[in-house]
Every structure is written in C-alpha cells, then in structure tokens.
Amino acid sequence: MTTGWTADRIPDQHGRIAVVTGANSGLGLVTATELARHGAHVVLAVRDTGAGRQAARRIGGDVEVRELDLASLASVRAFAEKLAADHPAIDLLVNNAGAVLLGPRRTSADGFELHLATNMLGHFALTGLLLSTLAAGREPRVVSLSSITHKNAHLDFDDLMFERGYRAAAAYGRSKLATTVFGIELDRRLRAAASPIVSTLAHPGLTRTNLTPRAWEHRGRAGRVIAWLGLLATQPVERGALPQLRAATEPGVRGGQFFGPAGLRETRGRVTEARLGREAAGPAIGRRLWSAAEELTGVGYL
Q: Which stretches are transmembrane (predicted)?
C-alpha cells in the first residue's frame, strides 16, 4: 500500500522565512517543526509567548517567537508592523491558528463572534497587512486552513456575527466556510492583480489536536468523556498536518489548490486534492465576504 506524500518530500527551505500562526501546539507546531527541520527561518506567531518559547525549544532550529492575538485587530496590526520592519520580505504565511469553542457565544476584543474573529477575520487582516512583505518574497505563498465542516455550513450575511439562534458547532463551521471562501477569493484577486503570491488551502480531516478535548470542557465530566471518545476516530496530528505542509511547500502548486486527506470522506489517510463545498466556490459569495471583511477589519487590499 502506498503511503503517499510525506514530510520527507518537503524541499530544502534554507533561505526562506515562514510565518505560522498558532505554532505553539497541534497542527501549527508540527508545521513549524517540519519547516524548521528543512531549513526555514520560522516565526512562531502565538497568543501565549510562554507556550511559544516552550515550542521553540522543542523545535530547535532557526525559529523566533512573536506575540499575535488574532482576536484583536490591534494585536494583528502591531504584529504585522513589527514583522515587516524586521523582515522586509517573507516567503510563506500559514494561516493555521484556530478557535474551537462549544460553549456559549463569545466575542473578540473588537466585538466580533469569536470563531469568525480568530479563524477568518484576523487572518484576513494579517494577510492584507503583510501583502507587500509577501510580494517581496521568493515564490511567496499563503496557506489558509479550512475544515471539512465548511461543506455543511452557510454564511448568513444578515447575521455574520451569529447573534440570533447561536449554536457553537454551526459558528465554527461558518468560520471555516468563511476561511475557505477567503482563500479562494484571495487566489482570484491575486491572479487578477498579476501578483507573484500564490494562495492555497488545506484541511486536516479529523485530527487529534489539543483543541479537540478542550472544545468540550464546558460540559464537565460528560464533555471530557465525549471528547476522548471522539479522539478514537481521529488521525495523529503529524498526519493531519501533511495537507497544509504540502500546500505550503510542494513545488508547482497552483493558486486555489486545496489539499486534504483522501480516505473515508476526507477524514483521514494520504494527502490528495480535496473538494470544495458548493458555497465556498461561488465568486459572488467571495466578493460579498471580501467586502464585509474589509469593512469589519478596516483593512482593504486587492
């Protein structure tokens, strides 16, 4: 049986600067580790710098830790400004960080529903603020982290912040649909602008990360049981990170390519090209979400 694409196929990354959000644990930690192992200078963009420093010691190699709270536009702006001052060119941005919260509705520092703020709006703003820095990079690439949950989600533009009938699982799915729409629309706009930046996407299938049990903590002991039973259906995080590593590093990847697991309805297994949900692929929805994101974040580009 073929094992398919593995991290050993990552090309030499020496001379490249990579930024990975949420790099202190889970998929982000594996992604940062592999990029550093192959020679990249990796910026660990993390909310908790203490955890980031622990991750940096674990990773070794050429890494640095910088504070970034994607749920705060002020933090996003400060991070981007300092990064661009220190690194006039970056080659790779992996928009990996995510929130999975199955408790009551919560909001960000800017008043946005927290899933949407962290998973999409923060990354939208970050990408825009780093666009010129990326354009100065060598074969620059942006990777957006989707989820299979995006295929069953729907964007309600009359209630993007889910103030009516809030359901946490649905809010997460919406945020990942928004992230997917963003990655595809980013590709369209980069192509139209003849930009050298390539926008790709990936999803990890069902993967065992630290977010999985934490999402059920509000349910107490019963929630912990549900979480750990759910872990039995997941694949290891090292395998779950392969789609985004392929999207980030494989030579010749085209803008708009979307990678995910091949097996059991894209939940596990070797890496292949994944299928977009119908709503994610629509240009009209992409344009509408882009306009909304520009208005909400105050960051306009392309």
A: none
Distances (CA, A) of 169 to 86, 90, 104, 152, 153: 39, 34, 11, 11, 10
Q: Are 114 and 94 in contact (CB under 8 A)?
A: no
> Low-confidence residues of the chain, pLDDT below 70?
1-3, 208-233, 263-266, 268
- What pLDDT score was predicted for residue 266? 66
Return d(Cα 140, Cα 261) in angstroms, integer: 24
| Nearest CA-CA partner of 18 in 39, 49, 3, 48 | 39
**What residue spans define the domains of the chain?**
12-296
Q: CA–CA separation, 167 vs 104, rounded Å?
A: 8
Q: Check the CA dihedral 165-167-173-179 and report its sign.
A: positive
Q: How far apart are CA 182 and CA 190, in angstroms?
A: 12
Residue closest to 23 by CA, chosen among 61, 51, 62: 51
Q: Say which CATH architecture domain 12-296 belongs to.
A: 3-Layer(aba) Sandwich (3.40)
Known catalytic membership, residue 301: no
Among residues 112, 172, 216, 259, which one is catalytic?
Answer: 172
